[in-house]
Amino acid sequence: MPVPAFTAAAAVTVRTLTSLTFKAGATPGTYDMPVATLAKDATAAQRRPPLTPAACQDVWDIVYGRASPAGVSQLINWKADIYPGAATLAAYPHGAAAGLFRVLAADLSLCRTVSGLDYGGNHYTSRIVREAAPAAGDQAVRFQEAAALPEGDVKYTERVVVRVGDVIAAFDMVDVGRLTPFPPALLTQQVQRLAAAQH
Questions:
Q1: Is domain 14-197 annotated with CATH 3.40.1000.70?
Q2: What is the DSSP string of 133-155?
Q3: Quick check: pTM over 0.90?
Q4: Could you tell me if residue 36 is left (phi over 0), alpha (psi between -120 and 50 degrees) or otherwise beta?
Q5: CB count, 10 Å around CB of 21?
Q6: How far apart are CA 132 and CA 135, in angstroms?
């Protein structure tokens, strides 16, 4: 299912989303967590050839808020791990996020492997495994991407995507050789902040 384009204003502003991100010094186990506004023009990821199958491209576009009128991304550096995590908060016009989440759920069921080009222009194919979603927000999905590395190890990326009202929040956690979940307490904290800001 194609991801629609949105021309109406988002129900939550970039300024509000930024104020709801994790704060350096106040988030245990983290340091240096920069926040960036999601670009409206073509990003490097969008200029590369689309992922295949097309359903996977739709999933990635929703996870990373590429169609959102307002959104922010945050890199999360962990003190105890060399691999960073990330959070993306993407806001949509009132009522649109629910429909977009239905597209996400439908396309994720069709995305069992994903192929594309990495930032270095190298072709890759990863396996996608859907997992039990956490009880968070209004709707949620969780899936793992497993990518074989040239040296024989496997890179795992966990993605948890949660709809909270008119915002879709995505949480990434990367590790090599093992599955590491995004900290549940931090995910819950972010979801609660998003819910409170919309009521």
A1: yes
A2: PPS-SSEEEEEEEEEE-TTS-EE
A3: yes
A4: beta
A5: 19
A6: 9
What are the phi and psi torsion angles at 115 (to 5°)? Answer: -125, 145
Q: Are 70 and 13 in contact (CB under 8 A)?
A: yes
Q: In Å, how far are 85, 122, 154 from 73, measured between CA atoms?
A: 11, 25, 25
Residue 45's alpha-carbon distances to 21, 34, 135, in angstroms, are 23, 19, 31
Report residue 61 as tokens.
């576009």
> For 11-61, how does the pLDDT look when each residue is reduced to its tens digit (9 = 90+)?
899 999 999 999 887 788 899 899 999 986 544 445 578 999 999 999 999
Report the distance separating Cα 161 and Cα 136, nearest Å.
9
DSSP-derived secondary structure for 65-111: TTT-SEEEEEEEEETT-SS-EEEEEEE-STTHHHHHHHHHHHHHTT-
Closest of 53, 16, 66 to residue 197, by C-alpha: 16
